[in-house]
Amino acid sequence: MEGLFSLLLVAVVFFLMMRFGCGAHIGHGGHGHQHGEHAGHGAADGGGVDPVCGMQVATDSGYTKVHQGTLYHFCSRNCLDKFEADPQQYLEKGKELS
User: Fold this and answer.
1) Are 36 and 71 within 8 A, CB to CB?
2) What is the mean pLDDT of residues 8-26?
3) Is 58 helix (H, G, I), strand (E, B) or coil?
4) Whether 53 and 81 share a structural domain
5) What is the residue range of 1's domain?
6) What pLDDT, in 10s, does the model give residues 50-84?
7) Is 62 found in the same domain as 24?
8) pLDDT reported for residue 92
9) Residue 67: is it exposed, middle or buried by C-beta count within 10 angstroms (0-12/13-18/19+)?
């Protein structure tokens, strides 16, 4: 019976950590880590605009990528994948909008 209680206690702690602790950030790329790139946190306003879809992205959510020394923010993994496949397409699109 003592073993069952210990197992349930560990399961509850694990659930709480995954729900409210470090595990809660797994779907959005971690605690501000830059997905393999150790760069700054972006613009002074605390985020950036996704160059693929144009959506405003906060620093603490979404994905980031450093390309040619510039940090770009992405709303989803799908937008990041599109950017990685052809960054020039989206960089040129951004220049046209400016």
Assistant:
1) no
2) 74
3) strand
4) yes
5) 1-29
6) 999 989 988 888 888 999 999 999 999 999 999 99
7) no
8) 81
9) middle
Number of domains in the chain: 2
Same structural domain for residues 93 and 68?
yes
pTM above 0.70, yes or no: no
Q: Answer whether 17's CB lies under 8 Å from 56's CB.
A: no
* Residue where the block lists tokens 């073993």: 3
14 lies in the same domain as 36: no
Please check whether residues 24 and 38 belong to one and the same domain: no
E strands present in the chain:
47-49, 56-58, 63-67, 70-74
Alpha-carbon distance 9 to 30, whole Å? 26
